[in-house]
Fold these 2 entries.
Entry 1:
Amino acid sequence: MQIMKLDTLAQSIGEWLRGTGPESDIVMSSRVRLARNLPQYPFVSRASEQDRADIERFLRERIAMSSAGPGLESIDVGGLEEIDRQFLVERQLISREHADAQGARSVAIDKLEQVSLMINEEDHLRIQCIHSGLDLRGVWEQIKVVDEQIEQFVPYAFHPRFGYLTACPTNVGTGIRVSVMLHLPALVITRQIDKVFRSLHKISLAVRGLYGEGSQAMGDFYQISNQTTLGKSEEELVEQVGDVVPVLIDYERRAREFLVRETEQNVHDQVSRAYGILRTAQTISAEETMQLLSRVRMGVLLGLIGDVKIADINSLLVRTQPAHLQKLRGIELDTKDRNIERARYLRQHFEAGGQNVN
Amino acid sequence: MKCQQCDKQAVFHITELETGAVRELHLCEDHARVYLNQTEGGGGSADEAEDAAAAGGAAGQLGVGQTADELAALDQKACDMCGITFFEFRNQGRLGCPHDYVQFAKELEPLIVNIHGATEHTGRRPSRSPTTVETAAASGTAELTGVIGLRREMKDAIACEDYEKAKENRDAIRAIEDRWIPPARPDSQE
């Protein structure tokens, strides 16, 4: 049942990959997550196997009876094969930590894949909401409602001074992490990206790669998020991240204009070569694919490539990941065969003008 | 690269994961020795306590005016509910249960200031939670975390075949849960 369900998911893409929404040429997605815990159990890392099973069941049943319940489907992450857990990570429905954890754990997701509720990650409950483009306000309004709905049936661990209590003191208070995923190829090419990041660190913002904590930035995709969670209200923290995004968008746009103005032939050449490789390669790694898709994405936005849609590139970024490739193909493949399958998939996709994918 | 605490060349490059947050330190030999002594709870010089505190070592912050014995005693301090010691927390960077924030409040505060630059939550509150410190003792969280301790006692009682005691524990847990866990919606129960 579970695997059937995941195979159906593989045929579609999450809402956050649609490539629509404000500023979606640079802002891939906007995300907010809330960390919540039950007061009557130890935090996950100290919970026994029995505790974890009880926590999982309690939260799953209680979420189901809340008004948030009807739109959600639960997946038993602990009972999944590794490839299926990886598949959920690639879609950003669960974190890598959740995939690799031990014991009872699950995730509840909605049909649009905007809302995901991880049970027994680092905290008992992690509520996540993600939208396409720049829409932090919208994401916050949606997640606030989900949090309130669940709270009708779930007691949250809360301290009058320290706020929502979390397993790690770095999340205590609001338990909120507000983040945007940005595509910043021109800042990378013009070597301004490090300078930008240094100034972000100074104002307490963190920069991470595509798949969150500890992940490398791949294909010029970066996540910007708040670092502190206590002392400011949720709205203030949403604003703190939201305020810096227009500045980054402006930098990236200017860098793109500069590239076109000063080195158009060069950029056009780079973009065209990237596109050429993606359309003709016979074997290709996930990293190279990501890098080249990033270049092509920029090329499309600069009007240098005409026949590719942004939504298609966004979708390829996820579908050429290892677990997705294997799901789409329906068999397990080792690295070498995956690289061959990835190249085949890309060639087929571009030959058909992007029509075969859905 | 210069040492973060003086003008000498930094020769030690330390990545600190202890508090769950990754911090990079670049120190000269002397300051590295001071820092490492402190983070090991060895009661090193407290002169640099402030800088070490900024660097995120929990023990470094506690080094102010404390002897090695006091630090060792602190490390032994355990949560009444989940049993985690402060030493275990320092090692793992993860707390054991929500009650730790009450039990270790004094010790955690400098760490929380260091991470967030604040100690007062100003955001949303669950609708059932108290808004003042005074009523904290009566709050759901305070009573419900008691269940963690009771569950441990019950387990021990069963192990010792003291079923009378285990039954008492079970009844106490039920009473607290009935009082503080919102009623289930009857028509949607599985």
Entry 2:
Amino acid sequence: MTPALTVEGLTVVADGRRGSAVEIVRDVSFTVARGARMGLVGESGSGKTMTAMAVMGLLRRPLRVSGGSVLLGDTDLRALRGRALARVRGGRVAMIYQDPMQSLNPLHRVGEQIAEAIRLHAEVGRREAMARAVELLTDVGIDDPAVKARAYPHELSGGMRQRVMIAMALAADPELLLCDEPTTALDVTTQRRIVELLVRISRERGVAMVMITHDLGVAAGFCDEIAVMYAGRLVEQAPVRELYAAPRHPYTEALLGAACDLTLPLERPIPTIAGQPPLPGRLAGGCSFHPRCPYAQEVCTLERPLLAAPDAAAPARVACHFALTREKVRHG
Amino acid sequence: MAELPVPAVTARERLRRLPRPSLLAVSAGILLLLVVLVLAAPLVARYDPNEQDPAIAFAGSSWAHWFGTDDLGRDLFARVLYGGRLTLLIAGGAVVVAFLLGTAWGFLAALRRGIVDELLMRSADALMAIPQLLFALVCISAFGASTLNLALVIGVLLAPTTARMARTVALQEMNRDYYAAAVAYGARRRRLLLAELLPNTVSLLAVQAAINAASAMILEASLSFVGLGIQPPDASWGTLLKEGYQFLYQRWEYAIFPALAILLTIWMLNVVADQLGARSNRGRA
Amino acid sequence: MADAPLLEVRSLVKQFGGRRVVDDVSFTLARGETLGLVGESGSGKSTTARCVLRMLEADGGSVLFDGEDVLALRREPLRRLRRRMQVVFQDPHGSLNRRSSVEQILTAPLAAHGLGDRAARAARVAELLELVGLGGGYAQRRPRELSGGQAQRVAIARALALEPEFVVLDEAVSALDVSVRAQVLNLLTQLQRELGLTYLFISHDLAIVRYMAHQVAVMRHGRVVEAQPRTRLFEQPRHEYTRSLMDAIPVADPDLEQARILAARE
């Protein structure tokens, strides 16, 4: 079966003045199987959001896709224009954001907005659409959905709004849902509820999901597979358990080390990654991570490591010259 | 296939990447051109605007008199240019008055809150409730229709809306953390006002200033139209429009050109205001 | 007087439109220690801090700072007190005046209290930037030229400009990326140690509070539901709400997390 999403060699550039262009996303390839949940993990500026925006065809000047392909099932999204693209966007693929207010109209009742989204992609009457909207609100775990459908966005709590936005994204029964930091602005307890909801929806409806997050804790509970981005490139991609148990890229390892949870040792500094994330356009030669990497050797400054399987048996891919030798040192 | 021929794509790409002048630049450029023309009136116009020559009264457009002449044989092109000086002077003066008065008014209300706020804003409401033209009529009848008086009266009329705007944007800024931080380190009110609030609201206040300039021109024209504007023999665009209106059927150029000047300026001011507003909104997002 | 707390809050009350947002909140904070104030959004933790800092006027209760009645101070004495208590907010860029340079941002507090001349202030700016791990090269930058982590370091430097004893950290690391957050947390602990600072550390994230705070107070609906020393709170949380907050913290362990999420569906 064709995957829900196939991204091949995707490159996004920001056009500067005088014809210069800076690469924001560089040669990114991954697939998401139908019904699978992938995490796109990285820090701000790593290009993870731009990757999602490019998949949705939402990039605006000065940003544009300069290369690669994006296939939704068998449909080449880059070949679509105008109405055909609009039908797919919000229809077969939908996106939810960190700030629900970005996609909710403050002047309309939430039920009407969901009904509107339903009518946009299906030939149904106003009343029928409203009934389905209330049904969707029930599905996303909102109590009293008929009453809440009549509320305006500002009358709802942050978690509730996020649920409404998820309901709206589900309106056209998409095959793929892109979630851009959907829980970052929420309290921990609400955060957990939303992750639970997304996992349930993905299982029940077979919706493939890509979650963009910088929080490896959230990604752990949500994803089957994780792709780690650094400076616009994928540096590691692996099934979730493998990645957490034995991170192969030094950046992944460092990210896991810097995460704050209840097991963090007290009274000593949290392990960090030295230096600052690089700015696009001002990347180091060779491996972009080498200036911050504790394992860096001369070869890292000269040659860019390719994303490849470290050994034939592993389903993981990693872009590091020392993916295997580093392993050996640690285990042995 | 759906693929386009390669050269076409690159050509289109190249076109897309060409720097395009923004709407803001175009409209501001037209405004600037108008101002320069009007200021350079003595250099541009070939006649004295008040020089009468009954022999050529009501002449139509010609090479000698681009806009034709009026009932007294005065060159209309020169009169429109010189009239623009008065109009822009009054509008400019009114904008400055409205900005100073309105900003002080609004910021004070925002900073003091409570009863002071209440009083200041109620008085703004009260002033706004009086029909503008009526208020101006009374004041101009009382103090006389000099350029200074017109600028002052119109400026005062525009101050309350400016004050409302200034108060709203000030309150917005005061909710931001950089302002809270300044309060926390013990900044005095003067600093809060001049170093924190003003620089961060000036772009939005500029929008209001552009709107004010347009309103000022309309008010000036209205006052002139009822005979309380600039007095003869000098003429603003408003007075010219009024005089021309009387002769609309004999000599259409007489009324049309001042009207076009007013229309163009107000239109461009509105575009500038729109674009500035959109830009500062984007800056905040 | 070494044992006297630096900050003592008693029965603090703040109302908005008749609703008690801070309801009878009391705590004490010893010199050189950190009190973690934890709770979800709307629990009243930030409002509490703003009342303590006199950025909001409390409707009841008392705040003693080094024995001085904070809520009774007016004008100049209040302004003098502000030198001793400072604050760092959540949004690094929002808390810097985007029209000012870093140097202007850092000298503003000095100017507000008439401290030093031109040269002394410039020297202090360099010193402050060094202190928060930024080089002097940052002095002429504008906030929009800074990353989130750098902007937050500038905000910390501004808070330290007046050499305060007490700093409120109001969700100060919540908007930062994981690796930057770790750096800033390390910086904050190091500054506390070197300068003997006392922190009120406000966060919705119990894991970070556990790392930072010696004492923890859990707030809910404007009330403190549980207050304990860190070790005891995390070993034996007494209040059910505290326990639910702890359970909600995601762990970077797929097996555990996914099992919990599956369990929640039943």
